[in-house]
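Morning. Coffee machine broken again, so started the prediction first thing and wrote up yesterday's gels while waiting. Chain of 241 residues, entered below exactly as on the submission form.
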Amino acid sequence: MKASVVITSRRFSSRPWGRKRFYKSTSVHREGGDYGVRLDHRSLRTPLRKLFVVPREELAVGVAQEWSSQDDIIIPSHMHLTSLCNTVIDDVHVEKCRNDSLQHYLLNDMLCYHATEPDELVLLQQVHWSPIIEWFNESLAASTSGNHLINNEALLTINKWTIVGLQQMADLTGSLILTMALLKDRVSLSQACWLAQLEAEYQGKHWGQVEWHHGVDRAHLITALSAALLLTNLTANYTLH
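Came back before lunch.
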């Protein structure tokens, strides 16, 4: 699957929360066997002041692009890939993601909880969610090795970069099944976002929604999910040194 990340630069108010940009250029460099990012001539560091290094050049390039896309004010909440990498490097609850959060999604997946009313929403979920569940069950039965990311035993062997990417994708979509469908090219990024927000889309259609707020939410979901997808795809089959 071709990995891609959507990078956007948005302003939600005239007084964004952040700090003034202090650098002119960004670049990627080798750092031992890994890759680092420089802001002018300074090496990027994490919130805990650890040296920012990632195992793949593509990740470093994506992070450098996020920093380069910042305007006069640096807004960390717009830099999803940087945030995910910081989580791994600073080791913020990574093992909790492995042992608790992803285990939760194995047992409590959003796609398995269909509405019982109204009839129109029930039908929508049956038409759009049920085929994904059927695909998941059939592919799991056909090839356990081909879906090695979804069983308890395999979770213990996945590297921390992929764990954080999977956790973010599952959190954003509410579904590990939908996460796997996206990773396996069963659905596109935009389809995954729509499926994850199916009930909200239905409610908005019938009861109304604030258009600009809905657009911001969807843009945030697409951007954040694409960053997590990139991280997961680049590290899932990668042997880290």
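The beta strands are 19-20, 26-31, 34-39, 42-43, 53-54, 73-74. Going to sketch it on the whiteboard this afternoon.
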